[in-house]
Amino acid sequence: MRQRERIHKIKYALIPLLGILFWLWYVKTAAADVVYSDYIRLVHDYLPDVTDPSKFLVPDVLTRIPAAFLARLINVQRFGYSVTFDRMLTIAGMGLVALVLAIYMYRQNIGIRWQLAVGIVLFSLNKWEILLNGTAWTHVFSFGLFYVNYMLLDLLWTGESDAKQELMLCLMPFVWLLFAGEYIASYAATMLLVSFLGYLAGGDGSWQSRSKKSMFRGIMVMTAAALALYLLSRHFAVWEHAGSTDMSLAEVMRSSPWFLPRFFIKSFAGTVVGQETAASFAGGAPLPDAAILLTGLIVLAAYLFALILYFSGDLMDRTVFPLILLISGMINHVLVTAGRWIFLSESYAMSSRYGGQFMIGITGILLVFALYGSSRKRGERRAAQRRRTRIMAAAAAVSVFIAAGNCYTTYQEIRKAPYREQNYERMAAAVLQYETYPEEELLGIMEWHKDPAVLYDALGILKENRLNVFRTPVLQAEPEAQN
Fold first, then answer.
1. Is residue 461 within 8 Å of residue 47, measured between CB atoms?
2. Buried b / exposed e across 171-210, counting CB within 10 Å, b at 16+?
3. For the segment 408-425, what is each residue's pLDDT rounded down to a tens digit?
């Protein structure tokens, strides 16, 4: 029996393991170790002295993600400031997400087909940008930490938590401030809403129910306090958005009333088909705008469908974890729309950089479908069985649609992998000879759209301190060979 149980556990670990190996292969195939884009600012602002306390002890430190300071120190001192190091942290973060979901699906005895669907969404390459741009590692890692938090909240909801786990739930919001940055907003909104629901739902008047209500109240207080700390820190931050509009939202809505609703709907489409895949869908032709909007509406309907099944299927007493993911996913769509409309591009809502945020809601949808399908009651009447069969057929169709879109996007990104690698190699060659490149050409290659002086200062820091592409033994030996 123990051997059979061990094999059963291994089955749940298999898909996360394969997903991590796939992402490792993709990084090796599609990338080269060179700084670019967002890294330019980080090099300019924080290198070479990564131990300088004046760069850490600033009023807006929580917006700068404190955990990144420690990772940057390790990266500079041990790995010569390697982008690959940050990419490995990104993969570790997604591995944590997959591990939490595997544990949850094991506890709920969810079947292999739903495990596979969740795995396809998690490791889809609609998130290629946050995978290859290593600066996003803290965001992905924070998603993994959020999932841990949500699973512990689920244990409290179902009465399975212990005192240690309940203490962790109260302290976690402050720990996550070290990793989450602006994502603490969606996390806090989710925790406050779900904890409030738990507080309202908790009670028959017994000591246990009063204790649970007290815990939910404590979580709300601690979460609100952590959010307040972040907002205070954010008050001192100065934000730059290259390419953003100077128009107000009211002006945009007057000139283009349908822009914001279309942006919001297209953000849901991005969970199925990536921005670049939609731009070059079949034979190089773009996916029609109507098809993108229809895809977004289907995913939005899937959210509503999952919510209806969750409450009508009496799943609330069994688990709150998928509801947390649904709420968090929807909040992320709202926040992205509210924060990114300033770029005045509807397709920007489908950007790969938001794939990690949006996957949260999709995993919630898939988990609700899986749990509803396994909640059949004994003695259920034939009419109810037929209704359940029709519902599960619709759920399966939606799930196949989502998985197929993610598979196609992944396929297209795999085809582009060699070209992405060539682009990174071109960047590396440009960095090594940056002083001889025309300024405009160098700015384009390095994907830097801000002050050129910052770019040249950053590359000078790397060269002087033999970091990143300048750290290789071959480069260090070149002056001797020339002599």
1. yes
2. ebbeebbbbbbebbbbbbbbbbbbbebbbeebeeeeeeee
3. 999 999 999 999 999 999
80-94: average pLDDT: 97
pLDDT tens-digit readout, 160-199: 999 999 999 999 999 999 999 999 999 999 999 999 999 9
| CA 37 – CA 443 distance, rounded (Å) | 9
State whether residue 378 is helix, strand or coil.
coil
Name every residue whose Cβ is closer than 8 Å to that of residue 326 and which is 6 or more positions away in sequence. 303, 306, 307, 310, 361, 364, 365, 368
> What is the distance between the alpha carbons of residues 252 and 342, in angstroms, rounded to a whole number?
9
d(CA 32, CA 342): 32
Question: Do 125 and 26 form a contact (C-beta atoms < 8 A)?
Answer: yes
What's the pLDDT tens digit per position in 457-474? 999 999 999 999 998 654
Contacts of 399 (CB under 8 A, 6+ apart): 114, 117, 365, 366, 369
Instruction: Report how far residue 20's alpha carbon sits from residue 15's, in angstroms, rounded to the nearest whole number.
Output: 9
- DSSP assigned state of 465: T
The pTM (predicted TM-score) of the whole model is: 0.92
Q: 391, 139 in Cβ contact below 8 A?
A: no
**Residue 313 contacts residue 146 (beta carbons within 8 Å):** no
State the Rg of the chain over Cα. 24
Cα angle 317, 224, 181; round to 5: 105
Alpha helices per DSSP H over 31-111: 38-46, 66-79, 83-107
Which long-range contacts (C-beta less than 8 Å, at least 24 apart) are formed by 170-173? 170/218, 170/219, 170/222, 171/222, 172/145, 172/148, 173/222, 173/223, 173/225, 173/226, 173/227
The answer to whether 222 and 174 are in contact (CB under 8 A) is yes
Give the residue carrying structure tokens 């803290």: 138
